């Protein structure tokens, strides 16, 4: 792997670390904050953290994941020769999971802005799908490129 592709892969991994790590952090502190604070204060404390995480995710992590993901798929010939190979199937499954996690994340944002109780369910679904996507990404990294 050349230095350029190592940088592209590192960018993808760093963006994923921001996205999944931020979710894990927020998920880990939410129960303690909910327990320690009154509901009004809890919302006032958690909302700015969620908004900052969302800005970083929408303006940096998601675009970086998209660009580096497409570059890696093109570089590894997944889009052209992946087909029904293990790599192609894993890539297709990861794309389905990614679409689901983006939809769940957007639904979480809408529910959170509306202060709906569904926001927590959407956040948990987003986290679970994100972890599945990470697992599929690790699987993709371990499979040989088509024709290799």
Strand and helix map with partners:
Elements: H1 3-36, H2 39-75, H3 78-81, H4 86-113, H5 118-142
Summed up:
By secondary structure, this protein is mainly alpha-helical.
Question: Could you walk me through the main structural features you see in this protein, from its secondary elements to its overall organization?
Answer:
This protein is mostly helical. It has one domain (3-142). 86% of the residues lie in helices and 0% in strands. Helix 1 packs antiparallel against helix 2 (39-75) and helix 1 (3-36) packs antiparallel against helix 5 (118-142). The radius of gyration is 17 Å and the shape is elongated. The model has no long low-confidence stretch (mean pLDDT 90).
Binned, the helix content reads over 70%
Q: What form results from the Cα inertia axes? A: elongated
The run of helices and strands is HHHHH
Query: How large is the count of helical segments?
Result: 5
What is the straight-line distance between the termini? Answer: 13 Å
Total beta strands: 0
**How many domain units?**
1
Whole-angstrom Rg: 17 Å
Give the overall pLDDT as a whole number.
90
Main sheet? none
**Class derived from helix and strand content:** mainly alpha
Spans where pLDDT lies below 50 across 5 or more residues? none
- Which strand-content bin applies to the residues? under 5%
């Amino acid at each position: 792997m050349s230095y350029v592709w190592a940088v592209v892969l590192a960018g993808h991994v760093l963006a994923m670390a921001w996205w999944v790590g931020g979710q894990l952090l927020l998920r880990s502190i939410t129960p303690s904050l909910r327990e320690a604070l009154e509901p009004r204060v809890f919302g006032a404390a958690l909302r700015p953290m969620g908004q900052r995480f969302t800005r970083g995710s929408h303006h940096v992590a998601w675009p970086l994941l998209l660009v580096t993901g497409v570059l890696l798929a093109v570089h590894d010939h997944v889009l052209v020769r992946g087909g029904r190979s293990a790599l192609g199937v894993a890539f297709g499954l990861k794309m389905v999971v990614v679409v689901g996690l983006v939809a769940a994340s957007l639904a979480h944002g809408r529910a959170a802005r509306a202060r709906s109780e569904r926001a927590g369910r959407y956040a948990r679904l987003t986290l679970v799908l994100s972890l599945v996507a990470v697992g599929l990404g690790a699987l993709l990294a371990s499979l040989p490129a088509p024709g290799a």
